[in-house]
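Re: [ENG-882] Designed sequences occasionally contain unexpected residues at chain ends

Forwarding the minimal case from QA. C-alpha coordinates:
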Protein backbone atom coordinates (compact mmCIF):
# COMPACT_ATOMS: atom_id res chain seq x y z
CA UNK A 1 0.00 0.00 0.00
CA UNK A 2 1.25 3.46 -0.91
CA UNK A 3 2.52 5.06 2.30
CA UNK A 4 1.31 8.48 1.15
CA UNK A 5 -2.35 7.44 1.49
CA UNK A 6 -4.24 8.36 4.62
CA UNK A 7 -5.92 5.67 6.70
CA UNK A 8 -9.33 6.24 5.15
CA UNK A 9 -8.03 5.93 1.59
CA UNK A 10 -6.15 2.77 2.52
CA UNK A 11 -9.13 1.09 4.13
CA UNK A 12 -12.13 2.20 2.08
CA UNK A 13 -13.96 -0.43 0.03
CA UNK A 14 -15.53 1.50 -2.87
CA UNK A 15 -18.82 0.91 -4.63
CA UNK A 16 -18.50 -1.47 -7.58
CA UNK A 17 -20.52 -0.49 -10.65
CA UNK A 18 -21.85 -2.96 -13.19
CA UNK A 19 -19.24 -4.26 -15.58
CA UNK A 20 -18.69 -2.57 -18.94
CA UNK A 21 -16.74 -5.21 -20.94
CA UNK A 22 -15.18 -4.41 -24.31
CA UNK A 23 -14.18 -7.88 -25.48
CA UNK A 24 -17.32 -8.29 -27.60
CA UNK A 25 -20.80 -6.92 -28.14
CA UNK A 26 -23.27 -7.97 -25.45
CA UNK A 27 -26.99 -7.69 -24.85
CA UNK A 28 -26.46 -5.40 -21.88
CA UNK A 29 -29.00 -6.02 -19.13
CA UNK A 30 -26.79 -5.41 -16.10
CA UNK A 31 -26.89 -1.67 -15.33
CA UNK A 32 -30.61 -0.78 -15.48
CA UNK A 33 -30.27 1.61 -18.40
CA UNK A 34 -33.44 2.56 -20.25
CA UNK A 35 -33.69 0.73 -23.60
CA UNK A 36 -35.39 3.69 -25.28
CA UNK A 37 -33.76 6.94 -26.44
CA UNK A 38 -34.18 10.31 -24.71
CA UNK A 39 -36.92 12.69 -25.75
CA UNK A 40 -36.53 14.33 -29.19
CA UNK A 41 -37.00 17.64 -27.35
CA UNK A 42 -33.92 16.82 -25.27
CA UNK A 43 -31.98 16.28 -28.50
CA UNK A 44 -33.18 19.65 -29.79
CA UNK A 45 -31.98 21.30 -26.59
CA UNK A 46 -28.60 19.59 -26.99
CA UNK A 47 -28.24 20.89 -30.53
CA UNK A 48 -29.39 24.33 -29.42
CA UNK A 49 -26.55 24.91 -26.97
CA UNK A 50 -24.28 27.71 -28.20
CA UNK A 51 -20.84 26.12 -28.41
CA UNK A 52 -19.07 29.43 -27.82
CA UNK A 53 -20.87 29.74 -24.48
CA UNK A 54 -18.95 26.73 -23.18
CA UNK A 55 -16.00 29.02 -22.50
CA UNK A 56 -18.12 30.31 -19.59
CA UNK A 57 -18.96 28.52 -16.37
CA UNK A 58 -22.47 26.99 -16.32
CA UNK A 59 -25.34 28.93 -14.72
CA UNK A 60 -24.64 28.79 -11.01
CA UNK A 61 -28.24 29.05 -9.84
CA UNK A 62 -29.47 26.50 -12.43
CA UNK A 63 -32.72 28.49 -12.61
CA UNK A 64 -33.97 27.00 -15.89
CA UNK A 65 -33.36 23.43 -14.80
CA UNK A 66 -34.75 23.92 -11.29
CA UNK A 67 -37.84 25.63 -12.68
CA UNK A 68 -38.43 22.75 -15.10
CA UNK A 69 -38.06 20.22 -12.30
CA UNK A 70 -40.33 22.25 -10.03
CA UNK A 71 -42.99 22.48 -12.74
CA UNK A 72 -42.90 18.73 -13.37
CA UNK A 73 -42.98 17.88 -9.66
CA UNK A 74 -45.54 20.49 -8.60
CA UNK A 75 -43.27 22.29 -6.15
CA UNK A 76 -41.43 25.61 -5.90
CA UNK A 77 -37.93 26.01 -7.43
CA UNK A 78 -36.61 26.88 -3.96
CA UNK A 79 -37.45 23.33 -2.91
CA UNK A 80 -35.28 21.78 -5.66
CA UNK A 81 -31.58 20.88 -5.55
CA UNK A 82 -29.75 19.66 -8.67
CA UNK A 83 -26.49 17.74 -8.77
CA UNK A 84 -24.15 15.56 -10.79
CA UNK A 85 -26.30 12.44 -10.60
CA UNK A 86 -28.31 11.18 -7.65
CA UNK A 87 -25.20 9.46 -6.29
CA UNK A 88 -23.54 12.82 -5.71
CA UNK A 89 -26.69 14.15 -4.06
CA UNK A 90 -26.89 11.11 -1.80
CA UNK A 91 -23.26 11.67 -0.81
CA UNK A 92 -24.16 15.25 0.13
CA UNK A 93 -27.10 13.88 2.14
CA UNK A 94 -24.85 11.65 4.20
CA UNK A 95 -22.44 14.51 4.85
CA UNK A 96 -25.22 17.03 5.62
CA UNK A 97 -27.58 15.02 7.82
CA UNK A 98 -25.48 12.46 9.69
CA UNK A 99 -22.71 12.98 12.27
CA UNK A 100 -19.63 10.83 12.66
CA UNK A 101 -20.22 10.83 16.42
CA UNK A 102 -24.00 10.53 16.08
CA UNK A 103 -26.43 7.62 16.23
CA UNK A 104 -25.92 6.63 12.62
CA UNK A 105 -27.81 6.20 9.38
CA UNK A 106 -30.38 3.40 9.22
CA UNK A 107 -31.09 1.41 6.07
CA UNK A 108 -31.82 -2.14 4.94
CA UNK A 109 -29.29 -4.95 4.78
CA UNK A 110 -30.23 -5.54 1.14
CA UNK A 111 -30.48 -2.22 -0.64
CA UNK A 112 -28.40 0.15 -2.77
CA UNK A 113 -24.81 -0.78 -1.93
CA UNK A 114 -23.59 2.83 -2.07
CA UNK A 115 -25.21 3.59 1.31
CA UNK A 116 -22.66 1.66 3.43
CA UNK A 117 -19.86 3.06 1.24
CA UNK A 118 -20.97 6.62 2.06
CA UNK A 119 -21.08 5.71 5.75
CA UNK A 120 -17.56 4.36 5.65
CA UNK A 121 -16.26 7.32 3.68
CA UNK A 122 -17.72 9.91 6.05
CA UNK A 123 -17.17 7.84 9.19
CA UNK A 124 -20.89 7.55 9.93
CA UNK A 125 -22.19 4.67 12.09
CA UNK A 126 -24.44 2.22 10.24
CA UNK A 127 -27.70 0.86 11.64
CA UNK A 128 -28.64 -2.11 9.48
CA UNK A 129 -32.22 -3.38 9.54
CA UNK A 130 -32.67 -6.73 7.75
CA UNK A 131 -35.43 -7.07 5.19
CA UNK A 132 -38.11 -9.62 5.98
CA UNK A 133 -37.93 -13.20 4.73
CA UNK A 134 -39.95 -12.20 1.65
CA UNK A 135 -37.59 -9.21 1.09
CA UNK A 136 -40.19 -6.62 2.08
CA UNK A 137 -39.22 -3.72 4.34
CA UNK A 138 -40.82 -3.53 7.79
CA UNK A 139 -40.92 0.24 8.30
CA UNK A 140 -41.85 -0.14 11.96
CA UNK A 141 -38.51 -1.86 12.61
CA UNK A 142 -36.75 1.04 10.89
CA UNK A 143 -38.71 3.52 12.98
CA UNK A 144 -37.69 1.85 16.23
CA UNK A 145 -33.96 2.19 15.57
CA UNK A 146 -32.04 4.89 17.49
CA UNK A 147 -30.50 6.18 14.24
CA UNK A 148 -30.11 9.87 13.48
CA UNK A 149 -31.95 9.38 10.20
CA UNK A 150 -33.20 6.82 7.71
CA UNK A 151 -32.49 6.11 4.04
CA UNK A 152 -35.06 4.15 2.03
CA UNK A 153 -34.70 3.13 -1.62
CA UNK A 154 -38.19 3.03 -3.11
CA UNK A 155 -38.47 0.95 -5.21
CA UNK A 156 -35.66 -0.93 -3.57
CA UNK A 157 -32.53 -2.09 -5.34
CA UNK A 158 -31.66 -4.81 -6.12
CA UNK A 159 -34.98 -6.43 -5.11
CA UNK A 160 -37.19 -4.07 -7.16
CA UNK A 161 -39.95 -4.13 -4.55
CA UNK A 162 -41.90 -0.96 -3.77
CA UNK A 163 -43.57 0.67 -0.78
CA UNK A 164 -46.89 2.48 -1.29
CA UNK A 165 -46.91 6.24 -0.73
CA UNK A 166 -49.42 6.00 2.13
CA UNK A 167 -47.05 3.71 4.01
CA UNK A 168 -44.17 6.11 3.43
CA UNK A 169 -46.32 8.96 4.76
CA UNK A 170 -47.20 7.07 7.95
CA UNK A 171 -43.52 6.40 8.51
CA UNK A 172 -42.41 9.99 7.88
CA UNK A 173 -45.16 11.40 10.09
CA UNK A 174 -44.08 9.24 13.03
CA UNK A 175 -40.34 9.30 12.43
CA UNK A 176 -39.34 12.60 14.05
CA UNK A 177 -36.02 12.66 12.13
CA UNK A 178 -34.65 13.04 8.61
CA UNK A 179 -36.05 10.53 6.11
CA UNK A 180 -34.29 10.32 2.74
CA UNK A 181 -36.24 8.45 0.08
CA UNK A 182 -34.14 7.42 -2.91
CA UNK A 183 -36.56 7.23 -5.86
CA UNK A 184 -34.18 6.35 -8.68
CA UNK A 185 -36.69 3.83 -10.08
CA UNK A 186 -39.91 5.69 -9.28
CA UNK A 187 -40.81 6.36 -12.97
CA UNK A 188 -41.69 2.66 -13.19
CA UNK A 189 -43.84 2.65 -10.03
CA UNK A 190 -45.76 5.94 -9.82
CA UNK A 191 -45.93 6.26 -6.01
CA UNK A 192 -43.57 9.21 -5.52
CA UNK A 193 -43.33 10.80 -2.09
CA UNK A 194 -42.59 14.25 -3.56
CA UNK A 195 -46.11 15.58 -2.77
CA UNK A 196 -45.45 14.75 0.88
CA UNK A 197 -42.45 17.11 1.00
CA UNK A 198 -44.86 20.05 1.15
CA UNK A 199 -46.39 18.58 4.29
CA UNK A 200 -43.36 17.20 6.16
CA UNK A 201 -40.16 19.17 6.69
CA UNK A 202 -38.17 16.03 7.60
CA UNK A 203 -38.60 14.38 4.19
CA UNK A 204 -36.13 14.62 1.32
CA UNK A 205 -36.78 12.82 -1.97
CA UNK A 206 -33.87 12.12 -4.32
CA UNK A 207 -34.38 11.37 -8.03
CA UNK A 208 -32.29 10.85 -11.16
CA UNK A 209 -32.43 11.50 -14.89
CA UNK A 210 -30.57 8.25 -15.55
CA UNK A 211 -33.40 5.71 -15.51
CA UNK A 212 -36.80 7.11 -16.39
CA UNK A 213 -35.41 9.88 -18.60
CA UNK A 214 -32.86 7.76 -20.51
CA UNK A 215 -30.03 10.18 -19.69
CA UNK A 216 -27.56 8.02 -17.74
CA UNK A 217 -24.73 9.36 -19.90
CA UNK A 218 -25.27 12.96 -18.76
CA UNK A 219 -25.09 12.41 -14.97
CA UNK A 220 -27.79 14.57 -13.44
CA UNK A 221 -30.12 14.15 -10.49
CA UNK A 222 -32.21 16.27 -8.17
CA UNK A 223 -33.68 16.37 -4.70
CA UNK A 224 -36.97 17.84 -3.48
CA UNK A 225 -37.62 18.90 0.10
CA UNK A 226 -38.06 21.64 2.66
CA UNK A 227 -36.02 24.78 2.00
CA UNK A 228 -33.81 24.17 5.06
CA UNK A 229 -32.87 20.72 3.78
CA UNK A 230 -32.11 22.11 0.33
CA UNK A 231 -29.96 24.83 1.89
CA UNK A 232 -27.94 22.19 3.75
CA UNK A 233 -27.25 20.38 0.48
CA UNK A 234 -26.20 23.66 -1.13
CA UNK A 235 -23.70 24.32 1.65
CA UNK A 236 -22.18 20.89 1.21
CA UNK A 237 -22.06 21.30 -2.56
CA UNK A 238 -20.38 24.69 -2.35
CA UNK A 239 -17.75 23.25 -0.03
CA UNK A 240 -16.81 20.84 -2.78
CA UNK A 241 -17.82 22.05 -6.27
CA UNK A 242 -20.08 24.99 -7.02
CA UNK A 243 -20.59 23.95 -10.67
CA UNK A 244 -21.54 20.25 -10.64
CA UNK A 245 -24.06 20.39 -13.52
CA UNK A 246 -22.63 21.61 -16.81
CA UNK A 247 -24.30 23.92 -19.33
CA UNK A 248 -25.24 21.18 -21.81
CA UNK A 249 -26.62 18.94 -19.09
CA UNK A 250 -28.79 21.70 -17.65
CA UNK A 251 -30.34 22.47 -21.03
CA UNK A 252 -30.96 18.86 -21.99
CA UNK A 253 -32.43 17.81 -18.66
CA UNK A 254 -34.72 20.84 -18.50
CA UNK A 255 -36.12 19.91 -21.92
CA UNK A 256 -36.40 16.24 -21.01
CA UNK A 257 -38.36 16.65 -17.80
CA UNK A 258 -40.75 19.01 -19.56
CA UNK A 259 -41.65 16.27 -22.05
CA UNK A 260 -43.63 14.16 -19.63
CA UNK A 261 -45.92 12.66 -22.27
CA UNK A 262 -43.01 11.13 -24.19
CA UNK A 263 -41.52 9.49 -21.11
CA UNK A 264 -44.83 8.21 -19.80
CA UNK A 265 -45.28 6.42 -23.11
CA UNK A 266 -41.77 4.92 -23.16
CA UNK A 267 -41.77 3.91 -19.50
CA UNK A 268 -45.16 2.24 -19.99
CA UNK A 269 -43.41 0.03 -22.56
CA UNK A 270 -40.77 -0.84 -19.96
CA UNK A 271 -43.49 -1.73 -17.46
CA UNK A 272 -45.27 -3.89 -20.03
CA UNK A 273 -42.03 -5.72 -20.86
CA UNK A 274 -41.30 -6.11 -17.15
CA UNK A 275 -44.55 -8.00 -16.69
CA UNK A 276 -43.94 -10.16 -19.75
CA UNK A 277 -40.38 -10.94 -18.70
CA UNK A 278 -41.49 -11.84 -15.17
CA UNK A 279 -44.09 -14.25 -16.53
CA UNK A 280 -41.65 -15.82 -19.01
CA UNK A 281 -39.03 -16.33 -16.29
CA UNK A 282 -41.64 -17.89 -13.99
CA UNK A 283 -42.71 -20.19 -16.82
CA UNK A 284 -39.10 -21.40 -16.99
CA UNK A 285 -39.07 -22.25 -13.30
CA UNK A 286 -37.59 -19.03 -11.92
CA UNK A 287 -38.75 -17.44 -8.69
CA UNK A 288 -39.24 -13.73 -9.45
CA UNK A 289 -39.80 -11.06 -6.83
CA UNK A 290 -42.67 -8.62 -7.58
CA UNK A 291 -40.92 -5.71 -9.29
CA UNK A 292 -41.90 -2.04 -9.34
CA UNK A 293 -38.71 -0.99 -11.15
CA UNK A 294 -37.09 -1.42 -14.57
CA UNK A 295 -35.45 -4.69 -13.58
CA UNK A 296 -36.42 -8.05 -12.12
CA UNK A 297 -34.72 -10.03 -9.36
CA UNK A 298 -34.92 -13.76 -10.03
CA UNK A 299 -33.43 -17.11 -9.06
CA UNK A 300 -33.65 -20.67 -10.41
CA UNK A 301 -33.85 -23.63 -8.08
CA UNK A 302 -30.83 -25.89 -8.51
CA UNK A 303 -28.65 -23.15 -10.00
CA UNK A 304 -26.54 -20.56 -8.22
CA UNK A 305 -26.87 -16.94 -9.24
CA UNK A 306 -23.24 -17.01 -10.27
CA UNK A 307 -23.87 -19.94 -12.59
CA UNK A 308 -26.83 -18.25 -14.26
CA UNK A 309 -24.76 -15.08 -14.69
CA UNK A 310 -21.81 -16.96 -16.22
CA UNK A 311 -23.93 -19.10 -18.56
CA UNK A 312 -25.68 -16.00 -19.88
CA UNK A 313 -22.41 -14.13 -20.26
CA UNK A 314 -21.00 -16.97 -22.33
CA UNK A 315 -24.00 -16.51 -24.62
CA UNK A 316 -23.54 -12.77 -24.97
CA UNK A 317 -26.05 -11.55 -22.38
CA UNK A 318 -24.98 -9.52 -19.34
CA UNK A 319 -26.97 -9.52 -16.11
CA UNK A 320 -25.91 -8.46 -12.59
CA UNK A 321 -24.96 -10.88 -9.83
CA UNK A 322 -24.17 -9.98 -6.23
CA UNK A 323 -22.12 -12.48 -4.23
CA UNK A 324 -23.67 -11.40 -0.94
CA UNK A 325 -25.53 -13.10 1.89
CA UNK A 326 -29.21 -13.83 1.25
CA UNK A 327 -29.11 -12.87 -2.44
CA UNK A 328 -26.25 -14.91 -3.92
CA UNK A 329 -28.74 -17.19 -5.70
CA UNK A 330 -30.42 -14.25 -7.46
CA UNK A 331 -29.58 -12.31 -10.59
CA UNK A 332 -30.76 -8.78 -11.28
CA UNK A 333 -31.95 -8.51 -14.85
CA UNK A 334 -32.60 -5.14 -16.48
CA UNK A 335 -35.81 -4.94 -18.48
CA UNK A 336 -34.66 -4.26 -22.02
CA UNK A 337 -36.51 -3.78 -25.26
CA UNK A 338 -38.68 -6.64 -26.52
CA UNK A 339 -35.79 -7.75 -28.75
CA UNK A 340 -33.28 -7.68 -25.89
CA UNK A 341 -35.60 -9.60 -23.61
CA UNK A 342 -36.20 -12.19 -26.31
CA UNK A 343 -32.43 -12.60 -26.64
CA UNK A 344 -32.16 -13.15 -22.91
CA UNK A 345 -34.92 -15.76 -22.93
CA UNK A 346 -33.35 -17.53 -25.88
CA UNK A 347 -30.00 -17.66 -24.08
CA UNK A 348 -31.72 -19.06 -20.98
CA UNK A 349 -33.49 -21.70 -23.05
CA UNK A 350 -30.21 -22.66 -24.66
CA UNK A 351 -28.43 -23.55 -21.45
CA UNK A 352 -31.46 -24.74 -19.48
CA UNK A 353 -32.19 -27.33 -22.17
Amino acid sequence: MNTYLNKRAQGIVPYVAGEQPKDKKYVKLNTNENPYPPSPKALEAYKGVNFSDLRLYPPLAMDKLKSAVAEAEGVSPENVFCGNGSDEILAFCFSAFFDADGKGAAFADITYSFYPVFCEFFGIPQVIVPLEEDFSQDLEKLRKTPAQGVVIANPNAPTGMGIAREEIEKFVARSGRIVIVDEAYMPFYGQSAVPLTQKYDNLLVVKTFSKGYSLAGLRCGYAVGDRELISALERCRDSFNSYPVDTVCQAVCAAAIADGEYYREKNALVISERERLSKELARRGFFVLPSCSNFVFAKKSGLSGREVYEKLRERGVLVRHFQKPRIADFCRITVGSAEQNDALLAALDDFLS
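QA comment: On inspection the terminal residues look reasonable. The first strand starts at residue 27 and ends at 28. Proposing we downgrade this to a documentation issue.
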